[in-house]
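INFO worker-7 received task bundle
INFO bundle size: 2
INFO processing item 0
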Amino acid sequence: MVSTADGTTDRTTDPTADHRTRLTVLVALAANLVIAVAKAVGGVVAGSPALLSEAAHSVADSLNEVFLLAALRRSRRPADKQHPFGYGKERFFWSLLAAVGIFVMGGCFSFFQGVEALRTGADEKFSGYVVGLIVLGVAFVAEGVSLLRALHQVRRQGGGLAGVRDPALRTVVAEDGTAVLGVTLAAIGMALHMVTGQVVWEACASLAIGVLLVYVAYGLGRTARDQLIGEAADPETGARIRALLDAQPEIDSVEALFTMKTGLDSTLVAARVDLMPGLDSERVEEVAVRIKRSIAHTVPEADRIFLDVTDRPARETRESPAATGERGGA
């Protein structure tokens, strides 16, 4: 964290938290690579569509872990002339690619395997069932270990799953949780196929895995999209900033307040304020610097703070495009 002349800060992501997240991602990557090979070999040997669907799922997860490692490295770069607000949104971009990977490589392939099994059928020997179930058992243990590692980090950070702000960690938790459920579905489908001799059970398991992956991909993609477009800070943070501005004796009224998350631990704050009459230019500058420093102290994630001093009537300001969100706002 580096202080600037106006009292704002230039912040990069907490390196300690990044190190823990990177370790979590590496554990997930190692588990998925081993499991993907085992599932693919077992799926071919057993001729199991559900197992092949799970192999595609693990391949997609492995590629996504590579995306997340890239996000962790690239998002730590400091701001420069080309990107004056830093590279914090790199995390959101690579998380969006991970969601697309889950949808295309995992969900679509699982649907394909399920439909093909229903269309052509599948004959398996008893030895094929045994191989498939053993592979799924090993996969369940490996995915469970990876999931426990991710959940352990979530607990250390506090706030529970709903409070996970890091898109890389959130993606790993979603992937590993989905993988455990997917392996369970595949095992149930294979066991029912073995007992009844009806391939429809494995086909339905493959289709269910596809639905699960598409649902998870949609959820992750929607969150990443909102973050890339530009999400406002949470209402509590916005309320704290407005309360601080309202409490300043030199401010007559706060005409507009805007916030936007520019990274995992960084937020842009822009406020249009009407100052009390009679302040000279030097006094205005002194007040602006003090207010910025107060905001940065009260809200540590606010690392880009802009104040626009205006003497326009409050009603005119509130009805301006910038305050209403219409196109063309300043």
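INFO item 0 finished
INFO processing item 1
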Amino acid sequence: MKHITCIEDLRQLHKRRVPKAFFDYADRGSYTEDTLRANHDDLQKIKFRQRILVDVSKRDTSTTILGEPAALPLILAPVGLLGMQHGDGEIHACRAAQAAGVPFTQSTMSICSIEDIAAAVDKPFWFQLYVMKDRGFIKALIERAIAAKCSALVLTVDLQVIGQRHQDIKNGMTVPPEWSLSKLVDFATKPGWVAGVLRGKRRTFGNLAGHLKISDDITSLSTWINSQFDTTLNWKDVDWIRSIWPGKLILKGILDVEDAEIAAKSGAQAIVVSNHGGRQLDGAQSSIKVLPEIVDSVGSQVEIMFDGGIRSGMDVLRALALGAKSCMIGRAYAYGLGAGGQEGVAKAIDLLAKELITTMGLCGVNSIAEIDERVLAE
């Protein structure tokens, strides 16, 4: 990791070390990937004001996230199948996040189970929930998160209908992988990845293990999962979840002011301005484009987090300047995980932290609280 200088370096290393199907699962978006590209491109269009002769000797990136201290305004977002980027990937990512003093969010569709992670780390982590048709399973899943002392529940609200990800279809993406000659050759060239995954606790969806008799039959399991995403999901279901979950609730996937206004009245403590990383509605606006108007509308009522295209500490500063209180990263740390396990995730976080504190200095600010639109060029 000595010569890794940026997230793109981690991405390239990830691409070399992990089989194509799993790299593409993390890296690619839906349909023509217009929104995926817009997330990145629109962030880069935002320019900073360079300030000089300001005392920036006491710069500090610490902040609070949902009232809890954090070393950075950063959260590791829920990413499915981390255990297929690196064996026991969710555990390694959680440990790296906790060592860095930032929250980690486990995905419902993780390889390690809630209990696997809870047994392997010392501090509470966040849990992300997809609401499925089987409400009994969802209730049990929430209760498991409570038992594991998860400190926040992140409810993803933009996956009632699944956007098609062309590359997953072309790769025959399954867990465990669907064998073919090309995949055998691909896997054979990545012995470190193979050994790591084989040493991992699981190679299927850990949170479904034990709930379904078919949990070891990938074909039946995939059919069940695809049938479970619920197109009837609505705001009343948020009330139902709120009645079960006693802790902090975050709604992830808000991209519209009207939805943000409803969300602010739902009892949630925070919302995440997000388009699912360009993996759902292709042609939707980038997250950074809609962030300012959502902040203006509900920023005084609910904590606003940002998700979508963060690849540098400069991007973090851009989102904070436009009103976000913290930022989620997904691909950025998944690249690190695939590149080097826990060390790679730690490297991704460290890169963002160093870029953030350097950019703060060059913009003439010493604290996260000082960051606002004044750091941006008109």
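INFO item 1 finished
INFO post-check item 1: Residues 73 and 326 are 4 Å apart (CA to CA).
INFO post-check item 1: The radius of gyration is 20 Å.
INFO worker-7 idle
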